[in-house]
Amino acid sequence: MSIYSFKGHIPVIHESSFVHPQAAVTGNVIIGKDCYIGPGAAIRGDWGEIILEDGVNVQENCTVHMFPGKSIVLKKGAHVGHGAIIHGANLGRNCLIGMNSVIMDDAEIGAESIIGALAFVKAETKIPRRSLVVGNPAKIIKKVSDEMIAWKTAGTKLYQQLPADCHNSLEEVEPMRTIPENRPKQEDFYETLKEFKGEN
After folding, report:
1. What superkingdom heads the lineage (predicted)?
2. What is the assigned CATH class of domain 2-143?
3. What is the β-pairing status of strands 108-109 and 63-65?
4. Residue 197: pLDDT band by 50, 70, 90 thresholds?
């Protein structure tokens, strides 16, 4: 893992969490249980504290940082999609931050809210609990339904299982040059949002 101390601050990472070797975690960072940090992610606690509560995932190529003097919390079960940037913002419990979205300083994302892919949430924006947010600049378009949050929670549970799976099976290997006849099939165990009824 690429774990770095900074001015005496050494990251604290629970042993059940998984930080990919190609991710970087620096300085005043605390990572709770069953968290997943994907390759290319940068969590940089050089100018303030970053806390990831239990079950948070920060996926590939995400950035978590802030202006000097800010400290932020990604609360339990927060789900940060591929390529998103969290800059000095606090994320509520069990929220979803869509792919390539940007959440700016002092923004507050309410619990169980869903921020759509490519959304831009301006600094100091306060998003109430269970809001569905899209666009640039981001706007609340409706409340998150029970069905939508059930879908989100199920997806996050996969990421909460992923650290253990990575500890147990991820290893660096040389590639095969031909496809073997007995190549294993992967499970199909998660419904997409379109398969949930009543969400148009």
Report:
1. Bacteria
2. mainly beta
3. unpaired
4. very low
